[in-house]
Amino acid sequence: MAHAEAAAKFNENEAKVNWHDKALWFVRQKRDKQAHKIQGWEQLRDYASALKANVLSNLDNYLVQFEENAKKNGVTVHWAANAEEHNKIVHSILQKHNAKKIVKSKSMLTEECHLNPFLEANDIEVIDTDLGERIVQLAQEPPSHIVLPAIHKTKEEVDELFQEHLGTKPSGGNPEYLTREARKHLRNKFLQADAAITGVNFAVADTGGFVVCTNEGNADMGAHLAKVHIACMGMEKLIPQEKHLGIFLRLLARSATGQPITTYSSYFNKPEEGKEMHIVIVDNGRTEQLSREDFRRSLHCIRCGACMNTCPIYRRSGGHSYDATIPGPIGSILSPGKDLTKHSSLPFASTLCGSCSDVCPVKINIHEQLYKWRQIIVKDVPQPFVKKNIMKAVGSILAKPKTYDFVGKSTRFMLKNTPKSLINSKINTWGHARDLPEVKGDNFEEWYKKKTEK
Amino acid sequence: MSRESILNAVKANKPEALPLPDIDLSVFDEDINLIERFKENIEFVGGRLLELDGLDTLDIEIKALYPEATKIVSCMKESALGTVPVSKDTDPHTLEDIDLTIIKGNYAVAENGAVWVSEDDIIVRALPFITNDLILVVPKNAVNLHMHQVFDAISERERTFGVFISGPSKTADIEQCLVVGAHGAISLTVVLY
């Protein structure tokens, strides 16, 4: 289903859309407050962007350096070309330890690779331990946001889910009570787990260590209790040196949720005595994206979600409407690189207002890349007949000042004098769910002339 | 083994070399009261700050804050409140019912209310997470302005495991309502002395 159709579905419940829109905008405002609170925010972004650009231009050497250092630390490093290989590697490590019960903290990469269904098919229990991820796991849905996985759920929906799956009492959706119950439920899972899987926020080439950031403490509860810790990382998560963590840790949580830093920023270098640590480095289309000059900067992404929180389209269409692991503006420039046909509607799910690029902590030119994908898509993917021809017609009107003037006049006349029922009819897409602007009389040129003649 | 094919593909696809940026840390300088800023932030992230003149009264203060705590782990010789001994060989699963843990923190960060603790300070890695309540004890002169200074200060250590802890564990995953106490510690007190 194209994005617009899925978004229309989400918009059937207007009250929920309004809540979703406001909730995310509130997160965006918190981000602004935090960004303005410290000295040198823009310099931080510049440095982060330059660091990521340096990493991508030297990625092979950094990867080798990281592997070498991680091995010295007693960590086993694996390489996976694609999702299938990643899943097999994880499975083989689990098999080796006869691990049947797994706890997993948030990792968009394992979502991307569809690790959970793969392991479940192999008779392994995987429990997502981030509360938001646990909620969507129980609901058998994918996350709709990379930082706030269950942002599309109301507290009443969560209440019902927990009654059904965790045996909680009806509480009318009391967040305190539900969180306490989830803590108990997941505490047991942590204590029984044979192995823990985490994502990787940053991997440090010059130490071979990696950092995992959470607010809930779930990554640490998993990793420090289980005998085996498997960390799955996209290859672009590397940064050159440990001191650069300072730059990225200052940016990440401020951009993501408006916190000065996540509650826990855990830095793993060596496995604990008597335990095993594995890192799986995953490509899965990243080297291909690296080859695309116009789009490689999308690999700067540190998965903070700021572009989603600010995006007027995302806020009003919901993460599921993108039908991709990474939704929102950043997802709309990453996904077409993976499957252009499937995701061809995503670069059009944007007003090109540029707000995403403005808040991006690593300065990805997201809106420019959206525009560039559009250029490619209209060449490669057949466009709907109406859209194509309307674009052509409008193009020719805009190219001729006299025609433009005439059409403008007639449009203003029509807008003024046509009955609303016709304006908001099925034929006029612009009239769906929105009132067209009130016509003031003159166009700019006429207005300007009058003003200057006085 | 996909290692070679991945590395070869990266080599073929990567852009021309771009230099590492020279990072001028002076752009992040701020002339502020570090302790004040730290206090602001620790409260903002849901923690509590206790300022003492020395550690003589530490145990009395802790007792007053957590009168109910019975199963206590103390990881510092300055506190005699420990009732549960913990060593490198302790199975972390046995720490499930610990009420309170007292740990020495090496560095604090004014800009975000975080405290850096490393494996040596926590004995068993799970401890600061699995404990119900957590106390981090940090010298006043170890409060730094920002993360860059702390990374510089810890650059010579032996690297095993370390963590920046900023406040108690929390979540806002249910309708964006902030709930303190997710999977890690339910409360956090930082003692500055």
UniProtKB/TrEMBL annotation, chain A:
Is Iron-sulfur among this UniProt entry's keywords?
Answer: yes
Cite the entry's keywords alphabetically: 4Fe-4S, Electron transport, Iron, Iron-sulfur, Metal-binding, Repeat, Transport
Which residues are in the 4Fe-4S ferredoxin-type domain?
A: 291-312
Give the Pfam families listed for this entry: Fer4_8, LUD_dom
The record's listing under SUPFAM superfamilies reads: 4Fe-4S ferredoxins (SSF54862), NagB/RpiA/CoA transferase-like (SSF100950)
Q: Does the keyword Metal-binding apply?
A: yes
Q: Which domain of life is it from?
A: Bacteria
Checking InterPro entries in the record gives: 4Fe4S_Fe-S-bd, 4Fe4S_Fe_S_CS, FTHF_cligase-like_sf, Helical_ferredxn, LUD_dom, LutB/LldF, NagB/RpiA_transferase-like
Q: What is this protein called in UniProt?
A: Lactate utilization protein
In which organism is this protein found? Aestuariibaculum lutulentum
TrEMBL record, chain B:
Q: So which domain of life are we looking at?
A: Bacteria
Give start and end of each LUD domain: 71-192
Gene3D superfamilies the record matches: NagB/RpiA/CoA transferase-like
Q: Which InterPro entries match?
A: FTHF_cligase-like_sf, LUD_dom, NagB/RpiA_transferase-like
Q: What is this protein called?
A: LUD domain-containing protein
**Source species, please?**
Aestuariibaculum lutulentum
